[in-house]
Write a structure and sequence with these properties.
heterodimer, A: 288 residues, mainly alpha, MetI-like fold, two-stranded antiparallel ribbon, 12 helices, globular, B: 272 residues
Chain lengths: 288, 272
């Protein structure tokens, strides 16, 4: 970003992108804002309601429960996927044919449509005909993800770890491969331990890509919908009703547009706020 | 030191075990796709007893099935072309020039990745119905630009910032007009970046289903929607669904194979 020349005409180069993204982002967002302050009884009749829906949602225990489940889910996902992804990237071959084989096989889950991911894990985990469910029960575990909340949560987390850890691996691997060999040779001459190499060479070099990894995994796990709805449908009961599942239940199931829109906006603002906090915390050191 | 040496020897186990974990559910899906629905529901077998290709034959010969794949491929390719070609000049502007509001604009673009699709599904339906694009491939291709254009700009900007500015300056001194320089010299220079950006656009458009399903009904129906419809109308044909699911992995596998040497690079560059 340094050494760029001031040129206001550059706006013409970004204009097409701005127009298209604004068309997709601003118009639907304004529609949501519009719904969020109105009440409708069908027939396209709308009545202004002000901030009623926002107050109602912020005080509803249903929203609080869904938000808590969501925060718990995202925290577990980050706590597992980030360290695991870094560990795998560190243990991977640095270059050569085996590195390519690893990357290609690991990238597979990333390219499978999300409903297929859900369906795949469903048939993989079914207690009677699924490999995972059948084996666990054969080993003496009482496992049934359609009935037990704990099983449902474990399955959901296992699915997300399966689906997305590879993204962290790819990012961490990219960060690692940008370290020149000279750094490692210097460390060897100094007799640095493996931990010291990790702490003072590899981790600082991976910092930027890890920040991207944490942000992407945070945003996407916070917005998880398709895979979860296909796997557990939010059940058993409401045990795995994460925020977006609950939101769609309100919007389409009960067709309460006002509350659903208000909830969407609160949801969006939470993601924006938390992403900003992550970003600010992680870039703080660089500013000094 | 001995412990360190032992750890080095078994280090390969970490990625190996992870790859086994990645492949197990995929294996189970393939296993089921070669079974009849009766065998799937009737017994638990690690290997198909009555190996059959019937499921795949149905999908590849029945137009209601295979047009689903063609529809998905159509909007994914359109989206990739639109996203990358519009992102190219924009990324160039962000990497070479300073202009009013450039930083804010960049973050605004990225913030669109944070909008949960579940929030936008209904307004998107209304918007695209209003402009008469409902149930067309173009509608899905345009809608997916919401998250793919910011991503493409982000990746391409990283690659472009790695190209020395002297290249541009020399070309302009030699009297190249801007667009001729851009298309004839600059684009070939960052070909790898375009490959990576195209890979990620393809990937995110191929796996996204909520918007794709919301914006289509009959003509442009994606394969995912065909799968859910079959699940509900013709009983629960697990073998057929498994085969359909297995086939959705194929395009992605091809794309990974072609860009395998660049995937990791795409992320190393680029800035937040």
């Amino acid at each position: 970003m340094s050494g760029r020349t001031p040129n206001q005409k550059a706006w013409w180069l970004v204009l097409p992108v701005v127009v298209l993204v604004a068309f997709n982002a601003v118009i639907p967002l304004m529609t949501v804002v519009n719904y969020s302050v109105q009440e409708t009884f069908g027939d396209n009749q709308f009545f202004f309601e002000g901030v009623t829906w926002f107050e109602q949602i912020l005080h509803s225990s249903r929203f609080h429960d869904a938000l808590q489940r969501q925060l718990l889910f995202t925290a577990i996902i980050l706590a597992i996927e980030i360290p695991l992804g870094v560990a795998i990237a560190l243990a991977m071959p640095k270059r050569g044919a085996w590195a390519s084989v690893c990357l290609v096989l690991m990238a597979m889950p990333l390219l499978i449509p999300w409903n297929v991911v859900g369906a795949m894990w469903n048939i993989f985990a079914l207690p009677d005909i699924g490999l995972l469910g059948h084996s666990l029960n054969a080993l003496g575990f009482d496992y049934n993800f359609t009935r037990q909340p704990f099983s449902a949560w474990s399955t959901l987390i296992a699915m997300d770890v399966w689906h997305w850890t590879s993204l962290v691996v790819l990012l961490a691997y990219a960060g690692l491969s940008s370290i020149p060999d000279a750094f490692y040779q210097a460390a060897k001459i100094d007799g640095a331990s493996a931990w010291a190499v990790f702490r003072y060479i590899q981790l600082p070099k991976m910092k930027r890509v890890l920040m991207i990894a944490v942000l992407l995994r945070f945003m996407d796990s916070f917005m998880i919908y398709t895979e979860a709805i296909v796997l557990t449908g939010g059940g058993p009961g409401n045990a795995t009703s994460l925020l977006s599942i609950d939101l769609v239940k309100i919007a389409l199931g009960q067709f309460d547009l006002g509350p659903a829109a208000a909830m969407s906006l609160i949801y969006f603002l939470i993601i924006l706020l938390l992403s900003w906090v992550f970003y600010a915390v992680m870039t703080r050191d660089e500013a000094h | 030191m001995r412990v360190g040496a032992a750890m080095k020897r078994i280090k390969w186990l970490v990625p190996a075990l992870y790859i086994v974990f990645v492949l197990l559910p995929i294996y189970w899906l393939l296993n089921m796709s070669f079974k009849t629905t009766n065998e799937i529901l009737g017994s638990f077998t690690l290997w198909p007893d009555h190996f059959t290709l019937e499921n795949y034959r149905t999908i590849l010969t029945d137009p209601t099935w295979y047009t689903g794949y063609l529809n998905s491929l159509a909007y994914v390719l359109m989206n990739t072309v639109i996203s990358v070609s519009l992102a190219l000049p924009a990324a160039y502007a962000f990497s070479r020039y300073r202009f009013m509001g450039d930083k804010h604009l960049f973050f605004w673009l990225l913030s669109n990745r944070m909008a949960p699709p579940a929030v936008f599904a209904l307004p998107f339906f209304q918007l695209y119905s209003a402009i008469g694009l409902f149930d067309t491939h173009v509608a899905v291709a345009l809608a997916h630009c919401l998250f793919n254009i910011p991503l493409a700009v982000w990746i391409l900007e990283g690659f472009m910032s790695g190209v020395p500015k002297e290249l541009d300056e020399t070309a302009f001194v030699d009297g190249y007009p801007f667009w001729r320089f851009f298309i004839r010299i600059f684009i070939p220079t960052i070909a790898a970046g375009i490959g990576v950006a195209a890979f990620f656009c393809f990937m995110f458009s191929w796996v996204e289903l909520l918007l794709a399903k919301t914006l289509t009904a009959v003509v442009a129906k994606p394969i995912a929607a065909v799968m859910t419809r079959t699940a509900s109308t013709s009983g629960y044909e697990l073998g057929l669904l498994a085969a359909a699911g297995a086939l959705t992995i194929v395009p992605g596998a091809f794309v990974i194979y072609f860009v395998r040497n660049y995937i990791a690079k795409g992320f190393a560059l680029g800035r937040v």
